[in-house]
Amino acid sequence: MHEALQLADLIAASGRLVVLTGAGCSTESGIPDYRSPGGVWSRHKPIYYSAFAGSAEIRRFYWARSFRGWQRFSAARPNGAHVALADLERTGRVAQLITQNVDDLHQEAGSRQVVQLHGRNRLVVCLGCGTRTPRQEMQDRLAELNAEWIARAAWEGLAADEADFAPDGDAELAESLVGDFRVPGCQLCGGVLKPDVVFFGEVVPPERVSESMAAVDRADTLLVVGSSLTVWSGFRFVKRASDRGIAIAIVNIGPTRGDDLCHLKIEERCGLVLSAAVEALGISAVDGSDVAKPETRNQKPETIQIDLKVESQEPGMGGGSRPGETTPH
User: Fold this and answer.
1) Each residue's pLDDT expressed in tens, for the chain with a length of 329 residues
2) Hey, what CATH topology would domain 1-31+79-118+204-286+297-309 get?
3) DSSP letters spanning 261-317
4) What is the separation of C-alpha 263 from the centre of its chain, rounded to a whole number of angstroms?
């Protein structure tokens, strides 16, 4: 594949490569994206943070959808793109990976220098006391609390391949099916529980933006994998790289907001291109037994207390969206 060879040459010539990934990086793992033809937004719209935080009814609707989608989301495993990027980091060719995804598949493939801009869907955070617990624990609590609701569910079971879901595991479910679905509160303080991800309309934590921007400033090449760059949350890094004269390559099916700024654009499946580029570089994939498994897929993390007070800030400053733009979860 000629384009993969071009990408391999770009990687080989780079002294400090930074990678930015989006939902398209995980589609080959069975997790859909938002904006491609047939993507999630062509079927249903996400729940915004203000609606989630302000309405118990919306939270019941969200968690019923999330309950249905979790089985399929949690079954996803790294694909060729995740493995290739982990191999590039392992051999010293990737200095930093910035991801807009919340699925932990980069870490599961072996990447360690990772900033997850939009959080982690495998954790749940209490909006009252800040305690974080595993998402699987929430799934178990939801199942126990809603045993009767599940028994009379209006669909044929909850098979993983039957749930039409989003990149954060939010599955399609008619409001009429929610009924008396019940949502537990925090076991420590009784507060509202939310997936530990940045919802649409929510602010990306400024420290994650600062760390990522610093990595871009130190880079000589920025590789974008599987992102349309439609929202400012990701595009800001491409704009910064362009302003600083940093080489930009994009691997994405379909147009992106950064196409006019990049030096190389490849419209092909991410896993196919990256695997071919890694092979062209002569990098041998690590044996599966050597890839570190994520500690938090099914294990309980240490209890973490955080200060949830957010300073007032202008849109687009310190990690938020520009006016008229939203963050992606």
Assistant:
1) 799 999 999 999 999 999 999 999 999 999 987 555 554 444 557 789 999 999 999 999 999 989 988 988 999 999 999 999 999 999 999 999 999 999 999 999 999 999 999 999 999 999 999 999 999 999 999 999 999 988 887 654 444 444 455 666 666 666 667 888 999 999 999 999 999 999 989 999 999 999 999 999 999 999 999 999 999 999 999 999 999 999 999 999 999 999 999 999 999 999 999 999 999 999 976 644 344 444 445 444 333 333 333 332 323 323 344 433 445 54
2) Rossmann fold (3.40.50)
3) G-SEEE-S-HHHHHHHHHHHTTPPPPPGGGSPPPTTSSSPPPP-----------TTS
4) 25
Among 82, 118, 263, 329, the one annotated catalytic: 118
Radius of gyration of the chain (CA): 20
Residue 191 burial (CB count, 10 A): 17
Paired residues of 13 in beta bridges: none
Active-site residue 118, yes or no? Answer: yes
Domain ranges across the chain: 1-31+79-118+204-286+297-309, 37-75+124-197
Q: In whole angstroms, give the CA distance from residue 243 to residue 82.
A: 28
pTM of structure:
0.84
Contacts of 186 (CB under 8 A, 6+ apart): 126, 128, 129, 131, 192, 193
CB 105 within 8 A of CB 29: yes
